[in-house]
Structure formats: C-alpha cells, structure tokens
Write a structure and sequence with these properties.
Elements lengths: L8 E6 L5 E2 L17 E5 L8 H4 L31 E3 L2 H5 L8 E6 L9 H14 L4 E5 L3 H13 L2 E7 L4 H9 L3 E5 L3 H15 L2 E2 L8 H15 L7 E5 L4 H16 L8 E7 L4 H7 L26 H10 L3 E5 L1 H15 L5 H15 L8 E6 L11
Parallel strand pairs: 5-13, 6-7, 6-9, 7-8, 10-11, 10-13, 11-12
Antiparallel strand pairs: 1-2, 1-3, 4-5
Length: 396
C-alpha cells in the first residue's frame, strides 16, 4: 500500500494464536474467546528502502523510524519532539561507591528528557497518532501517573478527549499535569488494577477507546523505538545487559521486538542483550514467577511504593515478559523502597541526575548483579531511567 510517509505496516497479528487483523480499523486484543492475547503490528521489511546513512540526516526524534511505525499519513503524526534521548555513561559513581562498576562500561538512557518527562511519551505519541488517523474522538486510560500525563498532553495536541483513572496515592504533580492538559481525571482508592476495572467499565458504557497497557497495539510501537535508538547509539550493536523497571512491561517487550525487526532489516546481527526485569517488592509477581520457573505470574499487591509505576499487581502481558527474560537468558531483581531511595540519592549526589524511583531501582539491581558476578566485569550494561524524579517530590 502506498503511503505518504512510507510506513511499511501491513496488518496486526495475535502473538499467541497467530490470527490476523486489519490495521485499517481499531482493534484492542485478540477477539478469539479462548485467546485474548495482545496484537502486534507487522511490517513488510523486505520492502524497506531506508538506509542507515539516510537515517543520519533525519530529525532526532522517534519518528526518524517512521517506516517502522504504524501511521500511514504523516499529517496524522502527533508529536511533541519525543525520542532520541541521550545515552550517558555512569562513571563517577562507580569510583566513589567503592569501584562498583569496575571495568564494566555502564550507561543510562535518560527517558526523563522526553515530553511530559517520561518514556510514556513515546507510546502515547504513537497511540494517539494512530487514534487520530482512525477517527477516534475519546480515549480512556488507567495510570500510575506518567502514562496519564502523556495521554493528556498528546490528546490535547490532537484535539481528542482523554479520560484518566489514577490511584489517589499518586503524587500531586501527576494530577496537576493531567488537569492542566484538560483531561478528565478520576481518582480511585486502590491500585492501577482497580483503576483498570473502572476504565474498562466506563469505556464499554460510553464507547471510549481503551489505551490500557498492551490492550491496544500501538503504544508498544512507540516504546519499541527505544530499541531502535539503543542499537543506533551503540553503532548498530547492542549492550550485553539491559536493566528495565518492569510494571506493565511494555518497554521491555518493545525493545525485544525492535531488536528482532532490526535483524530482519539487516541492520544488526543475532546478538541479543540479557534482559533484566526490576520490580518493587510491593508488586514483584514477575520476579517471583521467573525465579520459580513459572510460565505466568500471580496477582501480587502489598500496597503503595515510592515507585508508583511499579505497582502493577499482575501485568496483562506477564507470559510475554517471562518469555523475553528466558529467551534472552536474563534475570529479575526485586528491590525494596528503602533501597530505591538510597539508590536515587546516590545517583543524584554522584551523577547530578534526579532519576525517577523506578529508574533508581535499576542502580540497586545493578549492584546486586555485579557483586554476584552475574554481570561480568568486562560487559557493557545499559540502565533505562524511565522518568524524572522531579514529579515524585511528594514521595521523596
């Protein structure tokens, strides 16, 4: 199909049963009653004419990869300049903290520099752009904070009405942000799972389109651009280990999808990083399932955590997350609030960067895996700081 921006999107495919769906109309999850798995956007990579050399001349946003994103008409792209966040070495902290890093090459990708100060901008830019293209007028989302702010911002830019369900315990900065962007905010006494129940019910009642994590196919497409950028910024190579804060897990799944697509394009080889899911002890169902060799996680919610984005009692795509960890020969780590806060202060004091609590959890996880020698002294490691600590000052 000829498109004005060269998108190579062909169709949607269920990741479990393989059933195909048209990409020209809205879909959420697989409609087979015995399946209900997530849908994945598929592309005709054999038709690609974009070269890595041409890519260098494009704007430094995630839409530089527009052939491999789902929007057919570039006029429908809703962008605030998201993506192509920097890769920054962690060097001073290793020396001061007793040479923890050693000979390892350790970097962090700073997603706090995205619009609305988190990686959620990527997913919502892609989802709202596709929503605009397909004529959606109202959306709804359950959120722990950052996704709500991103949906509100991109919806404002697109002229789409957003309805947002957020736990009462969410820091006030997130609530203020949503209201300033003109979205309708409903505070819920409970976790994001409780918000999801309200959002799903109201979506069915009013005909709003539900953009919950992995219950529509296009937020994943925005998140996968982190994987494209990682490969490009590492000179079309990949690090040995990637640590990722895992609540809903879309970013982890998206990076893995991107690396598969890049291999299909011939831009990288078969090497893959070992993926590490880092969770809060409050909601560590993925960690427990991985360590116990289980195929899926169980519902786990021990209440609030300073890392609001990690309070996801049971991710919708838990089986896929666990598959990625095992396929990559990866690992999982569970981190307590006191450890998160210590890690956040260390990064701030020694590196001059105020990470989100979710991102800070990775620094503690890195120390655990390094000291146990699961991460070898010569390996290249990447930590994904997914957001800004400035939004969490109420928690800190």
């Amino acid at each position: 199909m000829s498109t004005s921006n060269g998108s190579l999107l062909t169709h949607l495919k269920c990741v479990a049963c393989g059933k195909q769906y048209s990409a020209e109309e809205w879909h959420t999850i697989c409609q087979d009653e015995n399946c209900k798995a997530i849908l994945s956007a598929q592309y005709d990579f054999s038709a690609n004419t974009l070269t890595k050399e041409e890519l260098l001349r494009r704007p430094a946003t995630m839409w530089r990869y527009r052939e491999f994103l789902p929007v057919r008409n570039s006029e429908n792209i809703v962008t605030l300049g998201e993506g192509f966040t920097p890769m920054i070495p962690l060097n001073r902290i290793g020396t001061i903290a007793g040479n923890i890093i050693g000979y390892r090459r350790v970097f962090y990708k700073d997603e706090s520099l995205n619009p609305t100060c988190s990686f959620k901008a990527r997913g919502l830019s892609a989802a709202i752009s596709k929503a605009k293209e397909l004529g959606v007028r109202e959306t709804v989302i359950p959120t722990a904070g950052n996704a709500g702010g991103a949906l509100a911002a991109y919806s404002a830019k697109a002229g789409i009405k957003a309805h947002i369900y957020m736990p009462e315990q969410t820091p006030n900065a997130f609530k203020t942000e949503v209201r300033l962007f003109g979205a309708e905010l409903q505070e819920v006494n409970g976790s994001i799972s409780d918000c999801g129940k309200w959002a799903n019910a109201e979506a069915a009642k009013h005909g709003w389109f539900d953009v919950s994590t992995l219950k529509e196919p296009y937020r994943l497409e925005g998140k996968k651009t982190m994987g494209y950028e990682i490969a490009e910024q590492f000179g079309w190579n990949v690090p040995d280990v990637i640590l990722y804060p895992t609540g809903g897990g879309t970013g982890l799944i998206g990076i893995w999808k991107a690396l598969d697509e890049l291999e299909q394009l011939g831009w990288i080889g078969k090497k893959r990083p070992r993926m590490v899911a880092v969770q809060s002890e409050s909601c560590n169902g993925i960690h427990l399932a991985f360590q116990n060799g289980q195929a899926s996680s169980t519902f786990k919610d021990n209440g609030s955590t300073v890392a609001n984005g990690l309070r996801v009692p049971k991710p919708y795509a838990d089986k896929i997350i666990l598959n990625v960890l095992r396929e990559s020969h990866g690992n999982s780590v569970s981190v307590g609030d006191s450890e998160i806060l210590t890690a956040l202060r260390e990064i701030a004091l020694w590196e001059g960067s105020l990470w989100s609590p979710e991102g800070a959890a990775l620094w503690h996880a890195f120390k655990i895996l390094s000291q146990s020698e699961w991460i070898a002294d010569s390996e290249t490691v990447l930590l994904l700081n997914t957001g800004s600590g400035y939004k969490y000052l109420d928690n800190l």
